[in-house]
């Protein structure tokens, strides 16, 4: 299988006043990428940060792979600003978008990779017609909008369906994922693992990241 195990800590639970140092520490401890949660207060009830903060983080951290998870009502609005801020992977939710193909094309034309995300209530088959234009598909394992929620194991059939049908696709899970739930995700076929509290709050971040990556790798063989 050509997909690789990748661990991308969500910095939502990090000390946002010290974000560059916290992010660099995660990368030094083995994180493969950084998962940046952008919320607009409309698509989800919470509000986080926007492209100015992403850009300032990029100015401090030059080479790391940045994914922005756009939990926003109008993802088109932020494509150019996020591309300008140095984002590598622009993951947006399909639910509020009228023309997923057009938005995906705009993302790609701006120089970023395309990620398509679905909430727990969205059928994975809704993505079928778009998988060919996506670099990553993100299956949410909590309701988007808040950190620290409990993992929803009943989302795993979506991951398995994607892996069975698209063996070379990068499949990401996000929400409540940590050492206790990683086996469930890896067995279903997820290879990109977003983990917030379990990694950011760990006394030994490097150990937790390595442990989760090893579990994912064991299932990818």
From TrEMBL:
Sequence positions that bind substrate: 10, 69, 145-148, 176, 196-197
UniProt KW Manganese keyword: yes
Pathway: Carbohydrate degradation; pentose phosphate pathway; D-xylulose 5-phosphate from D-ribulose 5-phosphate (non-oxidative stage): step 1/1
Organism domain of life: Eukaryota
Names of required cofactors: Mn(2+); a divalent metal cation; Fe(2+); Co(2+)
Molecular-function annotations in GO: D-ribulose-phosphate 3-epimerase activity; metal ion binding
Its EC number(s): 5.1.3.1
Catalysis performed (reactions): D-ribulose 5-phosphate = D-xylulose 5-phosphate
SUPFAM superfamilies associated with the record: Ribulose-phoshate binding barrel
Keywords: Carbohydrate metabolism, Cobalt, Isomerase, Manganese, Metal-binding, Zinc
Parts of the chain that traverse the membrane: none
Keyword Isomerase assigned: yes
Classification via InterPro entries: Aldolase_TIM, Ribul_P_3_epim, Ribul_P_3_epim-like, RibuloseP-bd_barrel
Co-factor remark: Binds 1 divalent metal cation per subunit.
Positions that bind a divalent metal cation: 35, 37, 69, 174
Location of the active site: 37 (proton acceptor), 174 (proton donor)
One of the GO biological process terms: pentose-phosphate shunt, non-oxidative branch
Enzyme class, first EC level, given as a word: isomerase
Family label: Belongs to the ribulose-phosphate 3-epimerase family.
The protein's name in its UniProt record: Ribulose-phosphate 3-epimerase
Originating species: Drosophila erecta
Lineage: Eukaryota, Metazoa, Ecdysozoa, Arthropoda, Hexapoda
Name of the coding gene: Dere\GG10731
